[in-house]
Amino acid sequence: MPLDDLILGLQRALDRLVRRLRLGRPPSPGRRRLLIVQIDGLSRAVLEEAMARGRAPFLARLVHQRGYLMTPMCAGLPTSTPAFQLAAMYGVRPDIPGFHYHDKRRKSDVYFPRGGDAAHVEQTQAAGRRGIVSGGGTYGCVFTGGAASNLLTFAMIKRPTGAGLVRTASKLVVIAWVLIKGTIVSAVEVVRALLRMIADPVSAASGSWKWLAIKIGISVWLRELFTLAVAHDIYTGVSTIYINYLDYDVAGHAWGPRHPRALQALHRVDASIQRLWRVLRRVPEHRYDLYVLSDHGQAETVPYLKVAGGRPIEQSLFDDFFSPDLTAAGSAPEPRRVGLVRGFEALRAHRAPGFFQRFVNYLEQDFPWVLGGTRSVREHDGIRVIAAGPNAFVYFLETEEPLPLERIEARYPGLASRISASPGIGIVLARSAAGPLCFWRGARYGLDALGAGPFAKRPDLERIVEGIRDLMAMPSAGDLVIYGIDAPQGNVSFVTEVGAHAGPSINEMETFLIHPPGVSVSTPITHPVQLYPHFARYQADAA
Ligand SMILES: [Zn+2]
Known about the structure:
By secondary structure, this protein is an alpha/beta fold. The protein contains 18 helices and 20 strands. The chain has helices spanning 2-20, 44-52, 57-64, 81-90, 117-125, 162-199, 206-236, 247-255, 260-282, 304-307, 313-322, 339-348, 355-370, 405-411, 415-420, 461-473, 506-509, 531-542; strands at residues 33-39, 69-74, 100-103, 108-111, 137-139, 149-150, 240-245, 288-293, 299-300, 302-303, 377-380, 383-387, 391-396, 427-432, 435-440, 443-446, 480-483, 492-493, 499-500, 510-515.
């Protein structure tokens, strides 16, 4: 949009001033800067289809005409944003079994959108390493990666140096423009939706309102804000930038990874990346290397409620396996407050560094919930069940350490195999003296036998074995880890969503890394932990 260019021009003039004040110099000779663009939730298969069908035209040109290379990447297990980002940003295999889980040692749940949880995980698991975004900026990420500036962290306003003020003013120009443009585009979308409803009230089902909400919240406001803020960072020469576009993942959760609305969201993300590319070309002296990657894909799922008789997984487990004599009485779901309210409280209490990162996480995970989905925790009689997506965790709270299957089955004989044979269940994972075990359709498999059972047709069997080994080595993974992926009824999610991820299906695990020609990446990339040394080199450069 030409007006965007005008605003960026104005911003650039301010930035020149910033540069004169000794902010934003080019890197020292021979050094390069790093821009990582993450397209959340995009599998390699969907990207390739989208590129072939003109739904990601810029990325297609980048790869087919500009010589950028697309390298396959395996996301590891779980296929979940926080696990991916901690591994890529710090080079550690994290203890993050999902987006929502329980930590038996701390006796508390970890739920990433909640103020402080992501910060705690990052502090305790980054192992004192230098994050790949140290001194840079992160946008829409779960973790900071060491970034000094998360989006809209106004700490700099408190240091009113001349340069700081000019820099702040420059950023405010961008924010003001996003506010104006966002308001106009939102209004246009609302009017359009109203007109559609007047014209055709019958087909104006709730789905289109959902779409409108997502389009305005994420695809107008957040994407614009991120894109312009990153453009600003590129002009000022921020050494490393990690931006995560959430549009596609959120639309994919709501409608499915190949739904036209999800592909439309991808198309808009593609256009935003093109805008960043243009900015990069305007400041070649800043010498950025552009990487485009995805943290995981999605599987198309059917809801557990539909295939298992209308009860959520946490209820089925208690009704049918743990305490058949108990009814729902006495097993109240965890009281939880509406996410945003908590978030704003945290902001007011000044204990939410990177508050807007958390806000983004609310959108990522709470959208299905806000729009009528469910997410549940149930605890009774020392057993806590958390349903987090296509994955559910069962924790026996009597021990702080993971409880091995031998002890679980002393109390509940044949439990894992019986759960694995029940409707809507794919695999059940447990730990045993002989290593991790996988139960599928009522039968038990050691990791060396997976190829003879649940993963018989998978060419990436080795990656699955490694992923399950990693997952069950995490102290915070449930004593039982239950997946709805590959149930007899298809892929199943335990929460209300169409697209789901965390599990081992091929589209969840297989993603990509697009990188510049002339940059050598060691392949194959079998786990995001391998990205760390590659990206950390830019840190050494920036120092
Ligand atoms: Zn997601």
